[in-house]
Write a structure and sequence with these properties.
The protein is 37% helix and 23% strand. The protein is α/β, with parallel strands linked by helices. Helix 3 links the parallel strand 4 and strand 5.
């Protein structure tokens, strides 16, 4: 069996992936800049020295907004598969710009294999909407659990400074947040041609925080104090997460909601499922794999349900 290497495996989401893979009977190698298996995801020499042809690399080494193309280029040259959790439109665009060498190498590259864009694609596919026009994702992270310097840096690095109000159906109701550049804008229009607009609205979940994040000067100050901001979020932020979608069509809107104490697992379930499928030799796709093919839609929703994530309305209704 090929080796599974989890870059950023000592971080929060990387650690969850390691835990889930071990529970599934696999033996992932934990790699980071600070673990015994030291690999810097941005160091080409590290990657060539430690990763072999036919390995499977799960890349959870954020923030992607500050990453280099070193891993993408090494994958094509050495010949190993990659699953990344990219939340960066810039980083995933860089992956697609290397589509030709990735295809020539015959490897698999699953970029944005996370809530965005794997879950987003599944929601669109299960919605029965023939021609979706706009997809709005609303995220209130369980920051009491997930906040760290990497996640804070990723969030601040993608902020637009624009606020947005969305009126969901009950039980969610009216929600406010700040607009973030979404990786869905890169991945989804390729497989849903009618999609004209995608956006991600993030609600910090702390009173007054959304308003303060609109101010460019303050955002710069926050970027300089990411560790303190992460500590505040871990103390005062929400303990449970919300991921909701609004699909705009010519005839109105459709909504889908995922919530609960384990909703943050939606960020890693697609990568874990894809890795299991590749390890078992049951993943037929190669090249840059579109988000509609990362995981089977029904299996993804069922896996989320088993993890205790509430799906409202139930998928398929």
């Amino acid at each position: 069996m090929k080796r599974i290497i989890v870059l950023g495996g000592t971080g929060f989401f990387g650690g969850l992936i390691v835990e889930k893979l071990r529970a599934a009977g696999l033996t992932p190698h934990v790699a980071s800049r600070h673990s015994e298996f030291r690999i810097d995801a941005d160091n080409a020499e590290d990657l060539r020295a430690h990763i072999r042809q036919r390995d499977l690399v799960i890349d959870a080494a954020g923030p992607y907004q500050k990453r280099t193309p070193a891993l993408v280029d090494a994958a094509a040259k050495v010949g190993f598969d990659v699953i990344d959790l990219s939340d960066s439109a810039w980083y995933t665009t860089m992956v697609y710009e290397r589509e030709a060498p990735i295809a020539a190498a015959g490897i698999r590259y699953l970029t944005a294999c996370s809530s965005l864009s794997s879950v987003s694609a599944a929601v669109l596919g299960m919605s029965s909407v023939a021609q979706p026009r706009r997809l709005t994702a609303y995220l209130r992270p369980a920051s009491r659990l997930t906040a760290n310097e990497g996640s804070i840096g990723s969030f601040l690095g993608s902020l637009t400074g624009v606020t947005r109000t969305i009126r969901f159906e009950e039980p969610l109701g009216k929600r406010n947040g700040v607009v973030v550049r979404s990786v869905d804008s890169v991945t989804l229009p390729r497989v849903f041609p009618s999609l004209r607009e995608t956006e991600l609205v993030v609600d910090a979940g702390i009173p007054g925080a959304n308003f303060l994040l609109r101010r460019p000067g303050l955002r710069k100050l926050l970027a300089q104090n990411q560790s303190k901001l992460a500590a505040i979020a871990r103390r005062f932020g929400p303990a449970s997460g919300i991921l909701a979608y609004e699909i705009a069509t010519t005839g109105g809107y459709k909504h889908q909601l995922f919530t609960g104490e384990h909703a943050h697992l939606a960020a890693v379930i697609p990568a874990v499922m894809a890795a299991q499928s590749i390890a078992a030799g049951k993943f037929p796709h190669r090249g840059i794999v579109p988000p509609t093919q990362h995981v089977e839609r029904e299996a993804l929703f069922e896996a989320m349900f088993r993890e205790g994530i509430a799906v409202v309305p139930p998928w398929g209704t």
